[in-house]
Amino acid sequence: MNQALVRELFDLIDVMPIVDVHTHVNWKTGTAANIGELLSYHYYTELTNSADFQGGEFPFDDPKELTRVILPKLDLIRNTVQYDWLMTISEELLNLDRAAWYAENWDMIYDHSVDVMSAPDWREEVIAQSNIVRVFLTNQYDDDLEGLDKSFYSPCLRTEPLILWVPDPIERKKLGDFLGRPIRTIEDFRAAIDKIFDKFVAHGMGYAAMSIPANFQTDHVLDEDAVALMEKMIAGNPLDFQDLRAWQAFAMNCVADACRKYGKPFHLMIGVDRDAYNQGVPSGTDLFNSVNSMRGYDYLFNTYWDVRFPTAVLSDTTGLELTASAWIRHNVYPSGHWWYSNQPTDIARELRRRLDVVPHNKSIGYFSDAYYLEFILPKFRMYKFELALALAERMERSLVHPNMALFTMDDALEVAEELLLDNPITILGIEGIEF
Amino acid sequence: MNQALVRELFDLIDVMPIVDVHTHVNWKTGTAANIGELLSYHYYTELTNSADFQGGEFPFDDPKELTRVILPKLDLIRNTVQYDWLMTISEELLNLDRAAWYAENWDMIYDHSVDVMSAPDWREEVIAQSNIVRVFLTNQYDDDLEGLDKSFYSPCLRTEPLILWVPDPIERKKLGDFLGRPIRTIEDFRAAIDKIFDKFVAHGMGYAAMSIPANFQTDHVLDEDAVALMEKMIAGNPLDFQDLRAWQAFAMNCVADACRKYGKPFHLMIGVDRDAYNQGVPSGTDLFNSVNSMRGYDYLFNTYWDVRFPTAVLSDTTGLELTASAWIRHNVYPSGHWWYSNQPTDIARELRRRLDVVPHNKSIGYFSDAYYLEFILPKFRMYKFELALALAERMERSLVHPNMALFTMDDALEVAEELLLDNPITILGIEGIEF
Amino acid sequence: MNQALVRELFDLIDVMPIVDVHTHVNWKTGTAANIGELLSYHYYTELTNSADFQGGEFPFDDPKELTRVILPKLDLIRNTVQYDWLMTISEELLNLDRAAWYAENWDMIYDHSVDVMSAPDWREEVIAQSNIVRVFLTNQYDDDLEGLDKSFYSPCLRTEPLILWVPDPIERKKLGDFLGRPIRTIEDFRAAIDKIFDKFVAHGMGYAAMSIPANFQTDHVLDEDAVALMEKMIAGNPLDFQDLRAWQAFAMNCVADACRKYGKPFHLMIGVDRDAYNQGVPSGTDLFNSVNSMRGYDYLFNTYWDVRFPTAVLSDTTGLELTASAWIRHNVYPSGHWWYSNQPTDIARELRRRLDVVPHNKSIGYFSDAYYLEFILPKFRMYKFELALALAERMERSLVHPNMALFTMDDALEVAEELLLDNPITILGIEGIEF
CA dihedral defined by B114, B116, B121, B125, rounded to 10 degrees? Predict the structure, then answer.
């Protein structure tokens, strides 16, 4: 590693403003109120639960108590990139040296965090210090979006309730409540989707999104078949595996129809296996499946050729499939590095593949997936460091590679700017950002 | 990266002559007539179609117009290794600086290319400058091979028409036309294969080859079952999935029987999913499947233990399976880095695996897959650079590794020569090459 | 590569004593009697059989003749890490320079090996020079364990005979012989397992272990269903695929019940496809399947939440699944780098993943899988070198990484000590080791 070059590149990339195209931030609060809330992030509860088992039970409703319980266990995960995220928050945002993080000091840290984070301008300070200019959200269709600042937040519609959950009578009733009449026909279903899109577009919708089970199959489904399935649901008859698969394919097509109609992208996050771990903490029970092919999306990508599909994959084994899809498909855009693949080893490999064979206007570099604004800075820094490393290697390669032109620092920064700013802005149609 | 060492190694490897064991070169022409023909290579049409969609439609029958359409889009793929291939052709073969490649200059580039490439000795010049000594071809069974220069070209029989397409009456009729009588029995089918092999062997046959769908299953099939399937075809009854699978397994065995009889290798290219992308350009519609195991080939490799199987895989997820197969199976030979895996990230990983655990007399380093002779030089250079990098790292490792002997520059060059020359020559039985 | 730093780190790691948590060593002999026995290790027979085919036949009952046959072929695998293991044995243990390894010298090497290895203290010398302090074994349930030195060897119960083979009447009879009465009910089966565990625990049992076929499915099985399956077996009726799957799931649960009862870990080795290669040497006929998910173990891990599962995977494609499992599951522990994944490329990737996201008290660094004590040293050195490399890179990264604290040499050595000593000792409950 050419450390001087990597650091120089990193520093130049680090000053670029952050457009974060996928988070779980609560727009009404944005930041956390204390370190206990930050420690409630599933990475810390799941890793400490894994390192020192306590039945997945944590006092989530008492942040101070949660801090008391978790903080002494953090030493068991001090090697992890997730611990490093926390330390960057501590040092950069909370002005607290990482040497302060020892078990006996938990109450001092908690109290200090309350002091700092309860400042009235805490949210603005985090945003300013992190240089965040746009944050995409994850929203349920019935989320309250009134008062959301469209110039900073872009609400994104989570579509699992529409695509996966409608066969559940409770979920169907909830959707009917939103629509204003029960969901009894596929027309009702489509009307509900339209009403949802209307609402989201009015609030500056970013895109529709879905985290999708491994081995999902998109497919053509006739309206008459969907009608029969809806009638089965209404009659209270259970759907079998084939029925469910058909309904889900139909519902996904309805969402894609709406994306087309409203001119919005459909952001796919492919490959999760939910509820795999029984003793896990909340949000810490899901894994993924290495046996998963993107062939299940051929129908969707082909049929909705005029819809943009930014796509993230959970399994390393789908990484080259995503790269190849973005290489030849005009409407598939690799987007970030998701969850279990969001660590240096797999970021490094996928980044290099995308840099080498995907047109440079097509990759969205990174998203944080953060639950609080505080996590955006350290997570982006993790990515930006891997990016600096990859670009430094490309610069060095270009000096001796028989096919390459000289790849300069300026070229490297141009690539970084595309991945971090130009491409997300263009692909997702973000307005109003200047840098 | 030890740049000086890598470059020194590359330069020494680069002077080695090229034996290219898999191409799609047209032996009657060899080279292209102008830059438009080079730009019709699917990498350029598919990547620009992906970067700036235009429905997969390009003016393929008008090379000048194709140049006008594609050349301005090339800037969108300037980051790709495929763009770098083109630039090496431009600078090394066309004597045209890469700075000349800007949109407004498209007609100058086209005209210049016609000037240079229409020279009567263009083909010989490309061959001499690239130092190509042998080129394997991809041929249909009914290709005209009369006049082919066996000392330079080795025709290779593409067997999809035999193994996959015979159930199609049009394809079956075509095969019957070649045989001189309709294909109505499995004896007819075997006779056709024999006649094809006779023809190819007379023209210096390299090997039989097949690009194989993901999850293909080889298997034992009784003659009586094949007879029943053939009768079904002749009667015009459709074959179901199991029928098709059985027929394909039978037909592959027939081809392997012929390989055995004629002493020719069977080159497998495993894992393609054809026609996945509807809006793609010609040859730009295929992808691959990460869910694919080489277990489907156990029957073939075991039964035809006396046939050599050079094997390439399309998916990164099959890379270690191929390495492990070559490690223990005497008749499986890793061959090159194919298509979507033919880029630096995946070449680097597979190359290191093969160098570390496959006997050094068993790996065929690289093939270009080129459609025109012009592409052989830049593609081999891409590989040779990754090879130089891997060998330089091995040299450096050996200085401090507790188990390794000193791995010298001479040792490195010996490995390179085996991968690039000795192994393909020995494994494929190539005659008449001196270097 | 910072060669000086890597070597300095390696040297400091190399002096750490070896706890080897999985081998196939025969405790009654431990070491080999001559070089022929070392060459009978399947790596040498399979690699030379692959490089220079001779039908998988070797004179295994005549070590001198085996040496004569294999030694001249070793030059064909001189590039492999397996050859390097042999050279380290030669130079470090046999005091024989690697330059002596040429074909004509085979009898001198053989004779020299007999001289050295027949010394009465050869075993102690190998142990002392390799600094081995504990060796886990692989034992059949009916192995003679009388006289085994519990302070050095930990017998581990291989459970394939219990989980996979009971439907075979011969195997069932053998198990009944061990129990002292025929296996005719599931109570008999459970009693046999108990008797086996009693025996092993009395001899310092390490753990129960199983090398598991690709795509094995763990599951809940009702006793009444198992009873029906047992009755089918006793009646001599064949079990179909579903029956077999149910029986195997039931039997695995019985073994896990015993692990729970006796407080012993269950070491899983996931993903082998046995008997794939017909012309292979003994132990050289198995491959693996890249299509294999750890989802098949969800039931086992969840139900036996109080049993520890050290886990190794054979396929590279399962590597990130294992990392993710260890990241969130409290009772899954990544263990070493197995067989086809036990080479530098795949060790390097998995090591980095585990270092970055698995709590540092959860990974078992390495096991040798050795058949003779002589192989432990070179195999551990191969791993320790990759570890030194990864730790050196982490040190260098930490100097410029925006999220990381300085990662010092001491930090690096602490990580190494955990992987190599603290974690195996703690996770496997090894007693009596001081270092």
Answer: -130
